[in-house]
Amino acid sequence: MHIVVCIKQVPDSAQIRVHPVTNTIMRQGVPTIINPYDLFALEAALQLRDAHGGTVTMLCMGPPMAEDSLRKALTFGADRAVLLTDRYFAGSDTLATSFALAAAVAKIGETFGPVDMVFTGKQTIDGDTAQVGPGIAKRLGLNQLTYVSRITAVDQKTREITVERRAEGGVQVLKTALPVLVTMLEGTNEIRRGSLADALRAARAEVTTWNAADAGITDLLKCGLRGSPTVVKKVFAPSARAEKAAMIETEGKNGAAMADALIAAILDRNPALDADLRRLSAGF
Amino acid sequence: MSDAPRQAPAAAGRAGMKKELPEHFKAYKHVWVFIEYEHGAIHPVSLELLGEGRKLADKLQVELAGVLIGGDAAELGEAAKACFEHGADLVYRVADPLLTHYRNEPYTKTLTDLVNTFKPEIVLLGATTLGRDLAGSVATTLLTGLTADCTELAIDDERSLAATRPTFGGSLLCTIHTLNFRPQMATVRPRVMAMPEAVPGRDGRIIDHALDMAEIDIVTKVLQFIPDRDTNKAQLAYADVVVAGGLGLKSPENFQLIKDLAAVLGAEYGGSRPLVQKGWITADRQIGQTGKTIRPKLYIAAGISGAIQHRVGVEGADMIVAINTDPKAPIFDFAHVGIVANAVELLPVLTAAFRRRLSVHRLAS
Ligand SMILES: Cc1cc2nc3c(=O)[nH]c(=O)nc-3n(C[C@H](O)[C@H](O)[C@H](O)COP(=O)(O)OP(=O)(O)OC[C@H]3O[C@@H](n4cnc5c(N)ncnc54)[C@H](O)[C@@H]3O)c2cc1C
Ligand SMILES: Nc1ncnc2c1ncn2[C@@H]1O[C@H](COP(=O)(O)O)[C@@H](O)[C@H]1O
Question: Is B338 in the pocket of ligand 1 (CB under 6 A)?
């Protein structure tokens, strides 16, 4: 079985700061990580490979330094890594991203053998749209399984797969045919600690690097900014409410007095809350 | 928010439009809301979107349509009534046994066929697991733009949908447009928009459309649906009073103070995202852009800084009360009542004061 896992390199969001004056994101010095959601996809793919045999190919679109993330993924035991990098991809929205990634998956199939499954994370922590997975599936005509919490069975002979999928108000048990695209739900597994052998192999491994032409992309109008129907027109800081918050005076008050003043301010603003709180606190 | 008056003058046709819409897209008119109808019920997010869609349609001076897809025409007819009462002028109904349970393939085909036939300029969907699964496929099939998880929708001077969502990292919002493609698509999470008032007896037209597909064309089968046993999950989003804590509480033990106050108030409790990442609370208790959006009558936030991703999840609250040691914390920019105080010390006293007050009332009543 040949499985492709799409991973994205993202800035560690916990360490991002916004410039207080210019309102721009200060990325300098912010460490990059593998999008945390993608590790659940990677682990699910590795488990399938271990159970059924085959190979796992990692695919990442990004700047040349994204190679670090691919190398890191190799230490967990992935077999191969492909970096898709070209300045034509800059500024891609989800439609343009899924176009480029779909083309690369097709090329991976031609180059390294037919692809049975594509995995993506549920979403990225920077783009945060959860759209790239469905986009890739649609472009490649793959059966789409999103928000998968468990892969219950894969039958290589009949080429059927059964999964549990998180739906609204419950779990759907779905059966479909390979090839499929799976977006994996978070918290469904835990990424393994790679072996020492994998770490050594990853350090020496070659990361296949493709530009647009290498990936068989000829229509550059579908890439990057030009291939993106959505346009960011404005980036801005949220404004404070016109009416300032009523601040409770704390000077010279002990805790009990502060609490009383706070409750008074709340009920002063909305006297009807008193009845609501009485009803709720009594358990209705 | 686009608080456009119902009879707003047409804003279109203004000179200086930056990009001319290609000729073949000019026929695209009207605002659509995909109505999520499953297990005999409409998902509340779809009605919330009808309320928002109504404002957009009025501003554009076009009609608002609901798209209802499912297995049984009579059942969908009943559901259509709720759509009319919540603002829809018409409903496109596609009833076919193949559509009884949500599956990506037939639903994507149905919605893309409808769009290609009736040409809406805006299509809105709930950002639920169903809505996101469907929206991404439909937008890719139509090769148009899709903006996910919007917190605000408006129509700009050039008749274009201005979809605002939080952007990467700290505290910024961005407004996204789909300039030369139609339809313009967006998803919005449950509870972000207010539920519109229903107008009993408000009526509309139903337009039936057939699905051109046979079961044999559909590869994916639904073997089973296992309903959630724990309905608690929904309660936080719909609670009247919510108490939440953030990193300012300093330790998981101190989080108990939040639960204590919530218990006395009969409230639900939740927290900021870092608490989920640290394992202090479970993911279904996270409040904010990537957690639950809430619209309670009273929201008390203790030791939460008020980053944009948190703010967009609570802005619909009638009253926001903030307890924070830092007078410059962003949460005071959108709270209604604030106190600069140490939450670890104030919470127990506040809980005691509320308990006294509420038990006195209980004796009196
Ligand atoms: C894509 C993305 C999605 C996100 N989604 C969400 C989301 O859904 N929900 C969410 O909450 N966050 C989300 N975040 C994270 C968000 O940006 C903030 O990092 C987070 O909300 C901060 O949590 P906090 O306020 O608890 O912690 P901090 O920002 O560390 O704030 C702690 C606050 O406590 C105050 N404090 C300290 N000690 C005390 C004390 N003793 N008493 C009272 N106050 C005290 C401090 O002054 C400070 O204001 C997201 C981020 C990204 C990048
Ligand atoms: N540039 C990229 N390179 C590789 N995979 C990506 C890229 N962008 C998105 N993905 C995949 O698509 C998923 C959803 O991303 P998003 O739609 O941005 O939330 C991610 O979890 C990744 O698996």
Answer: no
Quote the ligand 2 centre to A98 CA distance (angstroms). 8
Max Cα distance, chain A (Å) = 78
Contact B48, B190 (CB under 8 A): yes
Give the ligand whose atoms come closest to the C-alpha of residue B166.
1
- Per the document, the length of chain A is 284
pLDDT digits (tens, 9 = 90+) for B204-243: 999 999 999 999 999 999 999 999 876 555 589 989 999 9
Query: Cβ A168–B130 below 8 Å, yes or no?
Result: yes
Q: What are phi and psi of A132, to 5 degrees?
A: -65, -40
Distance between Cα A37 and ligand 2 center (Å): 9
Instruction: Bin A229: left if φ > 0, else alpha if -120 < ψ < 50, else beta.
Output: alpha
**Which of A103, A173, A124 is closest to A8 using CA atoms?**
A124
How far is the C-alpha of B324 from the C-alpha of B310, rounded, in Å?
15
Interface predicted TM-score of the whole assembly (ipTM), two decimals: 0.90
Token readout for B117 is 């036939």
pLDDT-based confidence at B16, cuts 50/70/90? very low
For the stretch B143-162, pLDDT in tens is: 999 999 999 999 998 899 99
pTM of the model: 0.89
Confidence of residue B7 (pLDDT cuts 50, 70, 90): very low
Token pair of B128 as six digits: 């639920």
Atom of ligand 2 nearest to the CA of A119: 23
Its sign, for the CA torsion B71, B101, A6, B150, is positive
